[in-house]
Amino acid sequence: MAEIRQKRIVLGITGGIAAYKAAELTRLFVKDGAEVQVVMTEAACGFITPATMQALSGRPVFTDMWDSRIADNMAHIELSRGADAIVVVPATADFLAKLANGLADDLLSTLCMARPRAGLDGAAYDCPLLAAPAMNRQMWQNNATQRNVKRLAADGVTLLGPASGDQACGEIGMGRMLEAHQIYEAIVAFLQPKLLAGKHVLITAGPTFEAIDPVRGITNRSSGKMGYAIARAAIDAGAQVTLVSGPVALEAPAPAIVERVESAAQMFAAVKKHAKAADIFIAVAAVADYHVAQTSKQKIKRSDADLNLTLVPNEDILAWVAALPKPPYCVGFAAESEKLQEFADAKRRRKKVPLMVANLAQDAIGADDNEITLLDDSGTHTLPRASKPEIARQLVAHIAKLYKSRRTGKD
User: Fold this and answer.
1) CA distance 9 to 18
2) What is the mean pLDDT of residues 173-189?
């Protein structure tokens, strides 16, 4: 992801069984172009070796406060200078207590204490500190741990998790560390510019299903991947997101407010409920254009006779929102199979929306990547094929720019 490329991450590892997840997290960082400097506590070396982390990061691993590889034995100072973030994975109960109470008795804890803070002794920037807690459920619920967690939040430390689930001790409950990909996504989100801070974004995603009888219906091949990626990107940009989703097999991005619907009528009702409070409306869902006029209450039995269905047009959700007296900034999607720009621009003008996003249905539906063309009053331009999360981030940045220029009247 572009947001992590060339970022410098100091990855601290402490002594918990979840230390093995730090290996996968390092791989994700390096794969996307980040520089990872690993710092391990003595206890961490009992769970995963420095040799493993050096192989994955491609850099020497530091464990000793007095490491002579750093000039003047100042590793706790030098390693954090120029870092974009310090991330502690896992963060044990002991290490959280150290951070909360200002204890610094090894390289990692001292490094965290010495990280640059904007305005402090002339420091020009903040080096944020993030930690992913991992511990037994009783340790997590302990009053002392909860006091430390509150103090860390007040001190500006960002905690990622924990989650509830199976634990290495055999118990189940809060205290399980997030998975590596969840931590990675949270850090990417943290480093993302907050272009939509304070804005409410309403998004529709996925297909709709129009029932014929209790077991059959009319639907389409939309996977919802693009809409969910845009929801994630909008959240990362600081927006409050309401996601109205048709039936998909995807995990909703936290902390979006999610309304799950099935039919176009249900999606329309959900959009009407939220539209007036939205600053931006992004209609990504592949909404069925028609529904069956008379749905059978019982399963229709097979016969040799022709089956005739009367189809009735569904409400045009995007056009309805765009026609509100004070509409949100509206973004439509056009999935076409031919004459992409011609048909998409005609749709934009017909629905009277400021921005239409066009893609070829045969290349995008169900795929993990996409190529889109953006059409607005200033013309058209294309975002080259990339993963849907990457395309979503570029699209959200473009929407934020257009939304701001419309409100200020400036390009």
Assistant:
1) 19
2) 91
User: How far apart are the C-alpha atoms of 28 and 33, rounded to whole Å?
Assistant: 9
Note whether 321 and 275 are within 8 A (CB): yes
User: What kind and span of H or E run contains 329?
Assistant: strand 329-336
Q: How confident is the model at residue 360 (pLDDT cuts 50, 70, 90)?
A: confident
Q: Do residues 357 and 334 make contact, with C-beta atoms less than 8 angstroms apart?
A: yes
Q: What is the pLDDT of residues 274-328, one digit of tens each?
A: 999 999 999 999 999 999 999 999 999 999 999 999 999 999 999 999 999 999 9
CA distance 402 to 376: 9
Residue 71 has what pLDDT? 63
Concatenated DSSP letters of 40-60:
E-TTGGGTS-HHHHHHHHSS-
Chain mean pLDDT for the chain: 92
Q: Are 335 and 288 in contact (CB under 8 A)?
A: no
Q: Which residues, 6 or more positions from 349, have their beta carbon under 8 angstroms from its beta carbon?
A: none
Q: Which residues are catalytic?
A: 169
Q: Are 20 and 47 in contact (CB under 8 A)?
A: yes
Residue 185 burial class via C-beta count within 10 angstroms: exposed 0-12, middle 13-18, buried 19 and up: buried
Check residue 391 and give left, alpha or beta (phi > 0: left; psi -120 to 50: alpha). Answer: alpha
Per DSSP, the three-state class of 286 is strand
The Cα 11–Cα 114 span in angstroms is: 15
Whole-angstrom Cα distance, residue 52 to residue 26?
11
- What single-letter DSSP state applies at residue 72? G
> For the chain, which domains are there?
8-191 (3.40.50.1950), 200-408 (3.40.50.10300)
List Cβ neighbours of 362 (8 Å cut-off, separation of 6 or more): 337
Cα distances from 211 to residues 190, 230, 248, 294, in angstroms, run: 42, 28, 16, 9
Residues 6+ apart with CB under 8 A from 373: 340, 341, 344, 357, 358, 359, 380, 381, 382, 383
Q: Where does the pLDDT of residue 265 fall: very low under 50, low under 70, confident under 90, or very high at 90 and above?
A: very high
Q: Per-residue pLDDT tens for 70-92?
A: 766 667 777 888 889 999 999 99
pLDDT at 210: 97
